[in-house]
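I have been asked to look over a protein record a colleague put together. Alongside the sequence sits a line of tokens, each denoting a local backbone shape. I have pasted the whole thing underneath without changing anything:
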Amino acid sequence: MSRSSEPADGAPRDEAPLARLRIALRQLYYGNTRTARRFQTAALSVDLAIIALFIAQPVLKNTPVFLSVDYSVAAVLALDIGARLLAARRPLEWLKRPVVLLDLFILITLLLPYTLINFGFLRIIRLWSLSKTGRLWQPLRRQGLAEWELPARAVLNLVTFLFLATGFIYTTFFRQNAGLEGYLDALYFTVASVTTTGYGDITLSGPWGKLTSIVVMIIGISLFVQLAQAIFRPRKVHHTCPQCGLQRHDPDAVHCKACGHILNIPNDES
């Protein structure tokens, strides 16, 4: 067989379109061009819309449009996972990442909404996984507002926990009050517990209810402390040390506090 049927790089011709597709997807998901930024912004908007639907799931699940919305979200998520898999340089290693495994589990709950209804509340964890991948903070970094990333992460962790706890409490204790009223009761109880207000008008019955209340209060207080520290601690700037890689330094730092390397941190002064 003549070698003229193969491209110069040695790859078979029937694989060339797939290789081009992978390169194009990699540039869209991880590139820094104007087109890539627009695509990443659109993808992030879709992700946030999906999370909003996850939060509204208890209200939607008894409506005629529930399955249509559920399967539509599943199709979008499956398309996103497939595209990111093609864009990955090492697909098998990418599939083993915890955030990817979480997305795959969420996809299964979307494909089996009634069979896995007890695990539906775990979908809100995708908000946390977006934070871990860094996609959520790219707009801040591009606008030169990286110093707000730490407080924003603390707020997001608190919001994720609030809705995660609300979903678990609703599924476990308030399902008999289906719909918006039961979900609001669960949210009200979660916020009252996290803030240690404890009005007492809504309580969880039984030993499991008491244990759930204890866990919610302990984790909630910890997240509030983390949020307060992120807001009120001395401001740091993001500047990567070329020697040890430490990224957060005092605005007027001359040496890296980890390795002592001389820093050249830019400022806004003329």
